[in-house]
Design goal:
With 233 residues, this protein is an alpha+beta fold. It folds into two domains: 5-76; 84-232, no CATH class. Helices cover 44% and strands 13% of the residues. The strands form three sheets. Strands 3-2-6 form a three-stranded antiparallel beta sheet. A hairpin with a 5-residue loop joins strand 4 and strand 5 (163-164). Helix 1 crosses helix 3 (43-76).
Length: 233
């Protein structure tokens, strides 16, 4: 059962309610005192005047309480926005690539599929980069290794149809649900629109990149999605 309005408002605006009640009490007391002094006025008119003044005072209190109710409801009574999780399209989630090499340091870089991430996607990066290749080189890809990326990312298909990385190659999402702009930059425009409506990135607005090279069911996507939902609901 809901608490009476006055009690609920007293909990959120105690000083305002105390002042309002004191004001009404003083008005009613003043009305009673002055009305009793006016002996020449008939009892009926005295009673009518007291009722009128009391009614005015109570209306003032009602308006004040109504205003406090609306002020208090704008923040505390607002329903939280439902969480939104983006599942990026093919090639639109950022991957991190690690490659072991004999006699050379391990290659480490981030990768966004150029065909699915046009140059305009990277204009908002800080510092800005020109395109997908520039993005990969800025994250650690050496110029001498650019020609090897296509082969590194090719999957080996076994006789039974299962797929796996080439020997010495490890590929995973750059992160999951921690940095939307880094994980799924292709959706920057949509994110800006949602943020303007109250959503907060990496809180109730997240993205879940995945290794799109594999067929459904052969990655950690389902487990990662479950953990992300649990963490944001």
């Amino acid at each position: 059962m809901r608490r009476p309005l006055l009690r609920r408002l007293a909990g959120s605006h105690p000083q305002a309610v105390i002042k309002a009640l004191a004001s009404v009490k003083s008005r009613i007391a003043f009305t009673t005192k002055t009305s009793n002094r006016e002996s020449e006025v008939s009892p009926v008119r005295q009673s009518a005047g007291m009722i009128k003044h009391r009614s005015t005072a109570l209306r003032s209190l009602s308006l004040l309480l109504l205003g406090l109710m609306f002020c208090g409801s704008t923040s505390s009574d607002r329903k939280p926005l439902p969480p939104i999780i983006f599942v990026p399209g093919y090639g639109m989630g950022a991957l991190h690539v690690e490659v072991e090499r004999e006699g050379r340091p391990e290659a480490n870089f981030n990768f966004l599929l150029p065909a699915m991430n046009p140059d305009a996607v990277f204009a908002g990066f800080s510092p800005p980069v020109a395109n997908a290749l520039d993005y990969a080189r800025g994250s650690g890809l050496e110029a001498a290794d650019v020609g090897f990326v296509r082969d590194w990312l090719k999957l080996r298909i076994d006789a039974d149809g299962s797929a796996r990385n080439r020997r010495g190659v490890r590929v995973r999402p750059v992160s999951i649900g921690r940095d939307f702009a880094r994980e799924c930059p292709r959706y920057g425009g949509m994110v800006e629109s949602l943020v303007s409506e109250g959503w907060e990135t990496n809180k109730n607005l997240a993205c879940i990149p995945f290794d799109y090279r594999y067929p459904p069911g052969e990655t950690r996507f389902a487990a990662d999605l479950k953990n992300l939902i649990i963490g944001h609901v």
